[in-house]
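call fold(seq) -> tokens
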Amino acid sequence: MISNTEIENALELCGKLMELHGENTFKSKSYHNAAFQISKVGTALQDMTDAEIANIPGIGQSMIDKIHSLLKTGTLPVLTELLHKTPEGVIQLMHIKGLGPKKVATIWKELGIESIGELEYACRENRLTLLKGFGAKTQKSVLDNIEFIKLSAGKVHYAVIEKDALEFEAHLKSIFPENQTGITGSFRRRDIIIDRLDYITDVPTQTAIERLSTSFACEKINDTLIQVSGLMIPTFLTCCSPSTFIATLFQTTGSPEFIHQFDSIDYSKQYPDEADIFQAAGMRYLIPEMRNGTNELQWIINYANDKPIATPDIKGIIHAHSTWSDGIHSIEEMALYCMQSGWEYLIISDHSASAFYAQGLLTDRVIALHMV
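ret:
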């Protein structure tokens, strides 16, 4: 089933490509508006009737037909046609911060640029400044953002990869039911940015490859390491013996900087759990989230509490948008939810007038809001 987010993204891309190709401005805006309104819908469009969808602001029968096309086939003919006549590299250019469809169209049609690499080269040759509406400041901003894209390639936020990471862990446990298996590395530390997924099992390497290869492409890197293809980011499975599972889990969880501080540990020994490794090093146990090698060992000397902030620690919400601008819940609904959650405060941060694209509040609406 296609999700609301996928429908929203398809309609938003359709609107951008219409702008890129200079099509009717009213039509492109209708797609942008539909995408924005759908982003605020809390119910799956799949479960809504036509009448309910029609009650979404800015959604008429024509747009309902397009939503149905996406729900039934996962495709949208108008989008397919636009994609067919747009080079993939040109679509990638629109991912660069500060370059909207119209600017990308100018770069594409006047300089013949069809990829981020070509654009970077043009900027370094100072050619972007030759275009109307592009100055030295814009050119530098484009270069800076291209550099950011290059540095962030292959990296995702923890929340983005969490579902896939846990599902693959569950898959491993299902095909290795008699063995110790789990996730490790930066994901186990809950790092904000994840650039690879690491798992560990006490299944022999060849056996692991044989079972995994029925559903995933695998490559043996060395006697203990397997690379698995098919997930969002590079994924690796480390195989070890049952007796060294805990020690290997410990070694693969901590960052290199953290593990370096445990050079005296004999990892060939069998440890009942990770706490025993800390005890062997004369240290207090540290949760995986605190194994990044950033002075944690000095920290535990001075502080007793090593528990991460959790949901029960939340006292209130300091940034919330209501239906007065682009939020999907009313102030009353959010206030009641906060009260039911035992929180102490809620701060509304609705958009100001300058954010017209998000129904920012004009002065008269701000006054009306305070009268509620």
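The longest strand covers residues 197-201.
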